[in-house]
Protein backbone atom coordinates (compact mmCIF):
# COMPACT_ATOMS: atom_id res chain seq x y z
CA UNK A 1 0.00 0.00 0.00
CA UNK A 2 1.42 3.37 -0.98
CA UNK A 3 2.11 5.77 1.86
CA UNK A 4 2.25 9.53 1.87
CA UNK A 5 5.28 11.28 3.51
CA UNK A 6 5.17 11.50 7.29
CA UNK A 7 2.09 9.24 7.27
CA UNK A 8 2.72 7.80 10.74
CA UNK A 9 2.88 11.22 12.37
CA UNK A 10 -0.27 12.35 10.59
CA UNK A 11 -2.18 9.27 11.70
CA UNK A 12 -1.20 9.84 15.32
CA UNK A 13 -2.21 13.48 15.03
CA UNK A 14 -5.59 12.59 13.52
CA UNK A 15 -6.37 10.04 16.21
CA UNK A 16 -5.47 12.35 19.11
CA UNK A 17 -6.73 15.66 17.83
CA UNK A 18 -9.92 15.25 19.84
CA UNK A 19 -7.94 15.97 22.96
CA UNK A 20 -6.78 19.41 21.83
CA UNK A 21 -8.79 21.81 23.98
CA UNK A 22 -7.92 24.87 21.89
CA UNK A 23 -9.14 23.22 18.71
CA UNK A 24 -12.31 22.04 20.46
CA UNK A 25 -13.07 25.52 21.74
CA UNK A 26 -12.71 27.14 18.32
CA UNK A 27 -14.60 24.45 16.45
CA UNK A 28 -17.41 24.24 18.98
CA UNK A 29 -18.17 27.91 18.50
CA UNK A 30 -18.54 27.33 14.75
CA UNK A 31 -20.12 23.87 14.64
CA UNK A 32 -22.13 23.34 17.83
CA UNK A 33 -25.34 24.75 16.40
CA UNK A 34 -28.29 23.42 14.46
CA UNK A 35 -29.65 24.79 11.22
CA UNK A 36 -31.86 26.99 13.42
CA UNK A 37 -28.76 28.59 14.96
CA UNK A 38 -28.97 27.03 18.43
CA UNK A 39 -27.20 24.27 20.32
CA UNK A 40 -28.69 20.79 19.72
CA UNK A 41 -31.43 20.14 22.27
CA UNK A 42 -33.33 17.23 20.74
CA UNK A 43 -31.55 13.96 19.94
CA UNK A 44 -33.06 10.65 18.89
CA UNK A 45 -31.03 7.45 19.23
CA UNK A 46 -32.37 4.52 17.21
CA UNK A 47 -31.19 1.14 18.43
CA UNK A 48 -31.78 -0.43 21.82
CA UNK A 49 -28.46 -2.24 22.12
CA UNK A 50 -25.11 -1.53 23.70
CA UNK A 51 -24.19 1.44 21.50
CA UNK A 52 -27.67 2.96 21.71
CA UNK A 53 -27.67 2.82 25.50
CA UNK A 54 -24.16 4.28 25.64
CA UNK A 55 -25.14 7.20 23.41
CA UNK A 56 -28.43 7.94 25.18
CA UNK A 57 -26.64 8.05 28.52
CA UNK A 58 -23.82 10.21 27.14
CA UNK A 59 -26.23 12.77 25.67
CA UNK A 60 -28.17 13.07 28.91
CA UNK A 61 -24.95 13.41 30.91
CA UNK A 62 -23.99 16.12 28.44
CA UNK A 63 -27.22 17.91 29.37
CA UNK A 64 -28.95 17.56 26.01
CA UNK A 65 -32.45 18.65 26.94
CA UNK A 66 -34.50 15.95 25.24
CA UNK A 67 -33.02 12.54 24.43
CA UNK A 68 -35.15 9.69 23.14
CA UNK A 69 -34.06 6.07 22.69
CA UNK A 70 -36.09 4.13 20.11
CA UNK A 71 -35.85 0.39 20.67
CA UNK A 72 -37.18 -2.41 18.52
CA UNK A 73 -40.88 -3.21 18.82
CA UNK A 74 -40.21 -6.89 18.17
CA UNK A 75 -40.51 -9.37 21.01
CA UNK A 76 -37.24 -9.92 22.83
CA UNK A 77 -35.50 -13.25 22.35
CA UNK A 78 -35.44 -15.61 25.30
CA UNK A 79 -32.24 -15.22 27.26
CA UNK A 80 -31.31 -11.88 25.64
CA UNK A 81 -31.21 -9.21 28.33
CA UNK A 82 -29.49 -6.57 26.22
CA UNK A 83 -32.66 -4.65 25.38
CA UNK A 84 -33.90 -4.69 28.97
CA UNK A 85 -30.51 -3.47 30.17
CA UNK A 86 -30.32 -0.76 27.49
CA UNK A 87 -33.77 0.53 28.46
CA UNK A 88 -32.77 0.59 32.13
CA UNK A 89 -29.51 2.44 31.46
CA UNK A 90 -31.16 5.03 29.21
CA UNK A 91 -34.13 5.58 31.54
CA UNK A 92 -31.86 5.94 34.55
CA UNK A 93 -29.96 8.66 32.69
CA UNK A 94 -33.20 10.56 32.04
CA UNK A 95 -33.79 9.59 28.40
CA UNK A 96 -37.25 8.86 27.04
CA UNK A 97 -37.48 5.22 25.97
CA UNK A 98 -40.01 4.13 23.37
CA UNK A 99 -40.62 1.19 21.06
CA UNK A 100 -42.81 3.13 18.59
CA UNK A 101 -43.13 6.73 17.49
CA UNK A 102 -46.86 6.85 18.29
CA UNK A 103 -46.34 9.11 21.30
CA UNK A 104 -44.83 11.87 19.13
CA UNK A 105 -48.05 13.63 18.16
CA UNK A 106 -46.93 17.09 17.06
CA UNK A 107 -44.63 18.28 14.29
CA UNK A 108 -42.32 19.79 16.91
CA UNK A 109 -42.09 16.50 18.81
CA UNK A 110 -41.30 14.63 15.58
CA UNK A 111 -38.37 16.88 14.69
CA UNK A 112 -34.86 16.19 15.99
CA UNK A 113 -31.63 18.12 15.68
CA UNK A 114 -29.72 14.84 15.47
CA UNK A 115 -30.65 11.23 14.89
CA UNK A 116 -28.01 8.64 15.72
CA UNK A 117 -28.77 5.27 14.14
CA UNK A 118 -27.01 2.46 15.99
CA UNK A 119 -28.53 -0.70 14.53
CA UNK A 120 -27.23 -3.64 12.54
CA UNK A 121 -26.76 -2.82 8.88
CA UNK A 122 -29.45 -5.26 7.77
CA UNK A 123 -31.98 -3.17 9.74
CA UNK A 124 -31.10 0.20 8.18
CA UNK A 125 -33.75 0.08 5.45
CA UNK A 126 -36.46 -0.78 7.99
CA UNK A 127 -35.32 2.08 10.24
CA UNK A 128 -35.46 4.52 7.34
CA UNK A 129 -38.95 3.32 6.42
CA UNK A 130 -40.21 3.64 10.01
CA UNK A 131 -38.84 7.18 10.30
CA UNK A 132 -40.52 8.19 7.06
CA UNK A 133 -43.86 6.59 7.91
CA UNK A 134 -43.88 8.27 11.33
CA UNK A 135 -43.11 11.68 9.82
CA UNK A 136 -39.82 12.05 11.72
CA UNK A 137 -37.69 14.93 10.44
CA UNK A 138 -34.14 15.88 11.32
CA UNK A 139 -31.26 18.24 10.64
CA UNK A 140 -28.52 15.60 10.88
CA UNK A 141 -28.46 11.80 10.82
CA UNK A 142 -25.38 9.92 12.03
CA UNK A 143 -24.85 6.27 11.08
CA UNK A 144 -22.98 4.38 13.80
CA UNK A 145 -22.46 0.83 12.57
CA UNK A 146 -19.84 -1.67 11.49
CA UNK A 147 -19.29 -2.71 7.90
CA UNK A 148 -19.83 -0.90 4.62
CA UNK A 149 -23.19 -0.29 2.96
CA UNK A 150 -24.41 1.99 0.20
CA UNK A 151 -25.68 5.43 1.37
CA UNK A 152 -29.44 5.45 1.93
CA UNK A 153 -30.10 8.81 3.58
CA UNK A 154 -29.81 12.31 2.14
CA UNK A 155 -26.06 12.74 1.81
CA UNK A 156 -26.39 16.46 2.65
CA UNK A 157 -27.70 15.50 6.10
CA UNK A 158 -25.98 12.15 6.61
CA UNK A 159 -22.68 11.44 8.39
CA UNK A 160 -20.96 8.08 8.85
CA UNK A 161 -19.10 7.49 12.11
CA UNK A 162 -16.29 5.02 12.79
CA UNK A 163 -16.16 3.81 16.38
CA UNK A 164 -12.97 2.18 17.71
CA UNK A 165 -14.66 1.17 20.96
CA UNK A 166 -16.35 -2.02 22.09
CA UNK A 167 -19.12 -2.06 24.68
CA UNK A 168 -20.15 -4.69 27.22
CA UNK A 169 -23.25 -4.40 29.40
CA UNK A 170 -22.65 -5.83 32.87
CA UNK A 171 -25.00 -6.39 35.78
CA UNK A 172 -24.47 -4.30 38.92
CA UNK A 173 -26.96 -5.71 41.44
CA UNK A 174 -28.03 -3.11 43.97
CA UNK A 175 -26.13 -0.31 42.25
CA UNK A 176 -27.91 2.32 40.17
CA UNK A 177 -30.28 0.81 37.63
CA UNK A 178 -28.72 -2.62 38.01
CA UNK A 179 -26.61 -2.36 34.84
CA UNK A 180 -23.54 -0.52 33.61
CA UNK A 181 -21.58 -0.28 30.36
CA UNK A 182 -17.89 -1.18 30.22
CA UNK A 183 -16.09 0.44 27.30
CA UNK A 184 -12.81 -0.67 25.76
CA UNK A 185 -10.70 1.86 23.85
CA UNK A 186 -12.67 4.77 25.29
CA UNK A 187 -9.50 6.86 25.03
CA UNK A 188 -9.70 6.67 21.23
CA UNK A 189 -11.98 9.07 19.34
CA UNK A 190 -15.02 8.43 17.21
CA UNK A 191 -14.11 9.55 13.69
CA UNK A 192 -16.23 11.36 11.11
CA UNK A 193 -15.39 12.93 7.75
CA UNK A 194 -14.26 16.54 7.77
CA UNK A 195 -17.57 17.90 6.50
CA UNK A 196 -20.08 20.29 8.02
CA UNK A 197 -22.08 17.32 9.30
CA UNK A 198 -18.98 15.59 10.59
CA UNK A 199 -17.82 18.68 12.45
CA UNK A 200 -21.27 19.27 13.93
CA UNK A 201 -21.36 15.64 15.09
CA UNK A 202 -17.90 15.99 16.62
CA UNK A 203 -18.97 19.11 18.53
CA UNK A 204 -22.03 17.38 19.99
CA UNK A 205 -20.14 14.24 20.97
CA UNK A 206 -17.28 16.22 22.49
CA UNK A 207 -19.74 18.29 24.52
CA UNK A 208 -21.16 15.05 25.90
CA UNK A 209 -17.81 13.54 26.85
CA UNK A 210 -17.33 11.25 23.85
CA UNK A 211 -13.89 11.76 22.29
CA UNK A 212 -14.31 12.43 18.59
CA UNK A 213 -12.69 13.92 15.51
CA UNK A 214 -13.66 15.08 12.03
CA UNK A 215 -10.75 14.42 9.73
CA UNK A 216 -9.69 14.40 6.10
CA UNK A 217 -8.30 10.90 6.76
CA UNK A 218 -11.75 9.42 7.37
CA UNK A 219 -11.65 7.09 4.35
CA UNK A 220 -8.45 5.49 5.63
CA UNK A 221 -9.73 5.19 9.21
CA UNK A 222 -12.94 3.60 7.91
CA UNK A 223 -10.84 1.00 6.08
CA UNK A 224 -8.72 0.39 9.17
CA UNK A 225 -11.77 -0.44 11.30
CA UNK A 226 -13.34 -2.43 8.47
CA UNK A 227 -10.25 -4.61 8.13
CA UNK A 228 -10.24 -5.27 11.89
CA UNK A 229 -13.88 -6.34 11.73
CA UNK A 230 -13.30 -8.31 8.54
CA UNK A 231 -10.52 -10.51 9.87
CA UNK A 232 -12.12 -11.01 13.30
CA UNK A 233 -15.90 -10.81 13.63
CA UNK A 234 -17.19 -13.86 11.77
CA UNK A 235 -14.03 -15.87 12.44
CA UNK A 236 -14.67 -15.47 16.18
CA UNK A 237 -17.83 -17.53 15.68
CA UNK A 238 -15.98 -20.29 13.84
CA UNK A 239 -13.17 -20.31 16.39
CA UNK A 240 -15.49 -19.75 19.38
CA UNK A 241 -13.06 -17.30 20.94
CA UNK A 242 -12.39 -13.68 21.83
CA UNK A 243 -9.91 -11.33 20.19
CA UNK A 244 -6.97 -12.65 22.20
CA UNK A 245 -7.88 -16.18 21.13
CA UNK A 246 -8.06 -15.18 17.48
CA UNK A 247 -4.55 -13.77 17.56
CA UNK A 248 -3.17 -16.78 19.43
CA UNK A 249 -4.83 -19.57 17.46
CA UNK A 250 -6.16 -18.24 14.15
CA UNK A 251 -3.52 -15.79 12.94
CA UNK A 252 -2.80 -17.68 9.69
CA UNK A 253 -6.48 -17.64 8.69
CA UNK A 254 -6.72 -13.95 9.52
CA UNK A 255 -3.65 -13.23 7.40
CA UNK A 256 -5.35 -14.97 4.45
CA UNK A 257 -8.52 -12.95 4.98
CA UNK A 258 -6.42 -9.78 5.13
CA UNK A 259 -4.61 -10.60 1.87
CA UNK A 260 -7.90 -11.17 0.03
CA UNK A 261 -9.40 -7.96 1.37
CA UNK A 262 -6.33 -5.97 0.34
CA UNK A 263 -6.41 -7.24 -3.22
CA UNK A 264 -10.19 -6.98 -3.67
CA UNK A 265 -10.76 -3.58 -2.06
CA UNK A 266 -7.65 -1.84 -3.40
CA UNK A 267 -9.43 -0.30 -6.39
CA UNK A 268 -12.94 0.35 -4.97
CA UNK A 269 -11.40 2.08 -1.93
CA UNK A 270 -8.38 3.66 -3.58
CA UNK A 271 -8.90 6.96 -1.71
CA UNK A 272 -8.58 5.26 1.65
CA UNK A 273 -5.60 3.15 0.66
CA UNK A 274 -3.80 6.24 -0.64
CA UNK A 275 -3.72 7.46 2.98
CA UNK A 276 -2.72 4.12 4.51
CA UNK A 277 0.78 3.55 5.92
CA UNK A 278 3.18 1.00 4.47
CA UNK A 279 2.74 -1.11 7.61
CA UNK A 280 -1.04 -1.19 7.28
CA UNK A 281 -1.09 -4.92 8.05
CA UNK A 282 0.68 -4.29 11.35
CA UNK A 283 -1.71 -1.44 12.13
CA UNK A 284 -4.74 -3.71 11.60
CA UNK A 285 -3.50 -6.52 13.83
CA UNK A 286 -2.24 -4.12 16.49
CA UNK A 287 -5.70 -2.54 16.47
CA UNK A 288 -7.33 -5.93 16.94
CA UNK A 289 -5.00 -6.66 19.86
CA UNK A 290 -6.34 -3.63 21.77
CA UNK A 291 -9.70 -5.40 22.18
CA UNK A 292 -7.96 -8.12 24.24
CA UNK A 293 -10.55 -10.43 25.88
CA UNK A 294 -13.54 -8.80 24.18
CA UNK A 295 -15.79 -10.95 22.01
CA UNK A 296 -16.65 -9.25 18.69
CA UNK A 297 -20.23 -8.02 18.45
CA UNK A 298 -21.01 -10.57 15.75
CA UNK A 299 -19.97 -13.39 18.09
CA UNK A 300 -22.19 -11.96 20.84
CA UNK A 301 -25.09 -11.79 18.38
CA UNK A 302 -24.51 -15.40 17.36
CA UNK A 303 -24.45 -16.56 20.98
CA UNK A 304 -27.71 -14.67 21.61
CA UNK A 305 -29.41 -16.28 18.61
CA UNK A 306 -29.65 -12.98 16.73
CA UNK A 307 -29.43 -12.39 13.01
CA UNK A 308 -25.86 -11.77 11.87
CA UNK A 309 -24.34 -8.93 9.89
CA UNK A 310 -22.80 -10.66 6.89
CA UNK A 311 -23.50 -8.63 3.74
CA UNK A 312 -21.82 -5.50 5.12
CA UNK A 313 -18.82 -7.35 6.55
CA UNK A 314 -17.20 -10.29 4.74
CA UNK A 315 -20.14 -10.50 2.34
CA UNK A 316 -19.19 -7.06 1.06
CA UNK A 317 -15.74 -8.39 0.12
CA UNK A 318 -17.32 -11.33 -1.72
CA UNK A 319 -19.60 -9.01 -3.67
CA UNK A 320 -16.74 -6.72 -4.64
CA UNK A 321 -14.69 -9.73 -5.74
CA UNK A 322 -17.50 -10.92 -8.01
CA UNK A 323 -17.79 -7.47 -9.58
CA UNK A 324 -14.09 -7.52 -10.45
CA UNK A 325 -13.76 -11.21 -11.33
CA UNK A 326 -11.29 -11.83 -8.50
CA UNK A 327 -10.91 -14.97 -6.36
CA UNK A 328 -12.22 -14.79 -2.81
CA UNK A 329 -12.15 -18.34 -1.47
CA UNK A 330 -11.44 -17.60 2.21
CA UNK A 331 -14.27 -15.10 2.56
CA UNK A 332 -16.67 -17.31 0.63
CA UNK A 333 -15.95 -20.20 3.00
CA UNK A 334 -16.41 -17.93 6.01
CA UNK A 335 -19.89 -16.75 5.05
CA UNK A 336 -21.21 -20.15 3.99
From TrEMBL:
Keywords: NADP, Oxidoreductase. InterPro entries: 6-PGluconate_DH-like_C_sf, 6PGD_dom2, Ketopantoate_reductase, KPA_reductase, KPR_N, NAD(P)-bd_dom_sf. It comes from the Eukaryota. Residues 43-148 form the Ketopantoate reductase N-terminal domain. Residues 1-40 are annotated as: Disordered. One of its GO terms (cellular component) is cytoplasm. Residues 219-335 form the Ketopantoate reductase C-terminal domain. One of its GO terms (molecular function) is NADP binding. Belongs to the ketopantoate reductase family. PANTHER family: 2-DEHYDROPANTOATE 2-REDUCTASE, 2-DEHYDROPANTOATE 2-REDUCTASE-RELATED. This is Ketopantoate reductase N-terminal domain-containing protein. The lineage of its organism: Eukaryota, Viridiplantae, Chlorophyta, Mamiellophyceae, Mamiellales.
